[in-house]
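Researcher: Can you fold this with KG4 in place?
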Amino acid sequence: MSIRILGLESSCDDSAAAIVDSQRNILSNIVIAQDQEHKPYKGVVPEIAARSHLINLEIALDRCMSQSSLSLSDIDAVAATSGPGLIGGVIVGSMFGKAIASVLGKPFIAVNHLEGHALTVRLTDNVQFPYLLLLASGGHCQFVAVKALGDYKILGSTLDDAIGEAFDKVAKMMNLGFPGGPIIEKMAINGDASRFDFPRPLYNQKNCDMSFSGLKTAVRLKILGLGVLTQQDMCDIAASFQKAVCDVIIRKTQHAIEYYEKICDGKNIVVSGGVAANSAIRNALKVLSECLGYNFVAPTTKLCTDNAAMIAFAGLERFQAGIVDGMDFKPRARWNLEEMQN
Ligand code: KG4
Ligand code: ZN
């Protein structure tokens, strides 16, 4: 018989609810973004995010139930992001999930948001373990050997900013709006990537750690040096910055593969998280993967950025493995993927 899991997501600035079943069907998937609330501040304001989740999660749940034509009694378990993330939003979402689970008398599953991103390709493409994952979002940036459910080895990560954060900050420097990633990507299409030779931090270090704060500073200094920016200047900055990021990612993925091959043998390279929506990065990774005899897999754009289908699916995988959580599970602002093993 089919199992249906309700997923809830609220760890950053998206309030989301989704239902996924054990045949890997997404029966509904609702995301309510808060871009307008945060736009004046050119970044996510945690207190505003938490208050908006309080209102938006309930609306997302209503829309999710009507899109699926199911009622709450058709749900077998409730999975809610319980970390890592902005703690106010995480508390709102996990308390909401626990309340629904307890009213229904169904199990509650505390999902690690990063595990949600890590497992999305198993929902979309049924990718088998193990695989090499680049998880790149607004708050996280790491290479992970995904060995099995709950068994993750971090091979390298950023020493400072996450890639999405760097995209957001570069957009903010040019007053382009928020979130910056999609805007920079769009501007880069009309830009000359060779006009500015921005640094590729840690490029020559033979490991898969990354750093983006020096690159961000170099972009800021260039902007200050140019004074008043023309539209073409902004496009060229966007393209040159994106190219520097791509070059670092490709170099570091090569090193990550070397580490990965020492402990795993699966031939899939996966990118996920909001930055995985970037076509230039996806294409560069695809070319590299194919050159090295790997399959390249990335979720559809809609499932790269934050959503609750990935939370419902991670919940489903855990539920099917017999893992559920108590109502006393404490939401976590920090929750490393390597702490997942039960
Ligand atoms: O996974 P996500 O939705 O939320 C977090 O868990 O952080 O990722 C959001 C991040 C933002 O920093 C956003 O600018 C970035 O992903 N992003 C992109 C693109 N779309 C979203 N970065 C580069 N190119 C894109 N097309
Ligand atoms: Zn995320």
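Model: Folded with KG4 in place. The first strand starts at residue 4 and ends at 9.
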